[in-house]
Amino acid sequence: MELIDILLKKINKNAVVTEIARDRDPFKVLVSTIISARTKDEVTEEVSKKLFKEVKSVDDLLNIEEEKLADLIYPAGFYRVKAKNLKKLAKILKEKYNGKVPDSLEELLKLPGVGRKTANLVITLAFDKDGICVDTHVHRICNRWEIVDTETPEETEFELRKKLPKKYWKVINNLLVVFGKEICSPKPKCNKCFEEIRKKCPYYEKIMH
Ligand code: SF4
Prior knowledge:
By secondary structure, the protein is mostly helical. 66% of the residues lie in helices and 0% in strands. The chain has 14 helices and no strands. Helix 3 (26-36) packs antiparallel against helix 9 (116-126). Iron/sulfur cluster (SF4) binds next to helix 13 and helix 14.
């Protein structure tokens, strides 16, 4: 976990804080994470802002027409499927959970459109519970750093649950998302990376030899 420790010290703390400071309302975290699937972060942010002006609660989501909802969340990817899932979600939340977002991974995973990444983000960000939210950035960087050796984000999450000390669980997503967007991107900008990290990075070692 040495590289994570170095990064925690090095990375621009303001950037991490900004990411962490997102709205922690469980309903908003859940809905915006569903919207974020296969959608750029900037688009998710813009769409969520627009949506939450009109849809602020499970009841609002239940009452809005599916067609209008699809219009509101356009240009997010697969906006029609997402609108359908969000309508189903509102019905289940109202009928089964008394209009509230459940606070356990198991219950969240039963909801339409909710995968492991979303469920983990909701429990960590909205409920401050232990979880590891693995998106493509966390998956890519943990493999580059040889913390895991996995094919999919799901496998990465399961490996990290065995290997990663709990103190890193809630911070790893924000930390590696910021780092992964700016530096250790799919085409890594190793020349911009922190020297201390570059010296110890197994992936850098591989691509240089
Ligand atoms: Fe990523 Fe390159 Fe930095 Fe390694 S040296 S962490 S591959 S950017």
